Every structure is written in structure tokens, then in C-alpha cells.
Amino acid sequence: MDSSYLTDPIILVVDSLSSLYILAVLLRFLLQWCGTSFYDPIAQLLLKITHPPLRILRRFIPPIGRIDTSSLVLVLFLQMAANFSILILKGVTINIGALTILSITDLVALLINIFIFAVFARALLSWINPEAYNSASSILVSLTEPLLDLCRKVIPDLAGIDLSPLAVLLFLQLAKMIILPPLQQLASLIG
Fold this sequence. Notes:
79% helix; 2 domains; mainly alpha
């Protein structure tokens, strides 16, 4: 047996648990930024699981306007710790600059993916059950409405068909293709 026999399961657990918590903190940041009601059950869950570390950070890191900087600092720290742990388990050494750029790249990719899945889920829900109101649909609306509204101003309705989700999805995929490769290349150059 080689060394990956034991490290691969550990990497899977570290990556899965850290990714889920990073997703929770980033979703909390986005929902707070979009002005979502935190009386929603899903928002309450996000508040409960992310509140302990944020309560400590908020003592030292004040918000800047509507931007909860303590959430951003926490999510960057968590992503850096996860990447560092995984790279150590793989036996790869990396300097702090490359680790920071790699972590920022991962967070930008996660942020774009959150919006892609939210727009897709909202479009799917609007086709399946357009009149339903539940916790998930209200969160999807608050996350996606600013992006969809921008596209609706540019793209008119075509015979009652809203093409704004397609335009937003195309824009987000292009953003991934334009933003992520230079960041990945920069991380490899620094590291």
C-alpha cells in the first residue's frame, strides 16, 4: 500500500467538512448583503452554525457599510487553512502568497458557483411550481433577483418568456473563464 491509501480518505473528510462550513459562512454573508430576512428557517440554521466564530471576530473587525468584513476574513482564513491542510497531507509545500491567491481563487469559484446553482434552481422551480412559496424559494429570489433584474433591463420579455436566467448563466460562466485562469496562473507563479 502506498501513502495515499491513508491520506486520501483524510483529505476527503477535511475537504468535505471545510467546504460545507465555508459554504455556510459565504451564504450567510451573501444573504446578509442581499437583505434576506433572517427569520427564514434556512437563514436561522446558517446563523446558528456560523455565529460562534463571527461573534469573536466582530469584536476586532468592524463592518464596512453593508459589507460584513468579519465574515469575509473568516471565510478567507477557513479556505486558507483547508488548502494548507490538504497540501500538507499531499506533501506539497507552498508559500503564504501562493496559498492566499489559491484560496481567493477557490472562493471566487465558489461564489460564482453559488450564483450559478441559485439561478438554475430558481428557473427550475419557476417551471415546476411557479406559485409556491417556501423557505428555499425566498432565499433563491433574494440571491438572484439583483442579477436577473439587471438582465431584464437589457433583455426584453419575448412573448412571456424570461430569458434573463440564461443571460445570467452565460455571464457567470464567462466570468469563471475570464477571472479564474489568471488567478490560478498567478498562484502557480508565486508558489
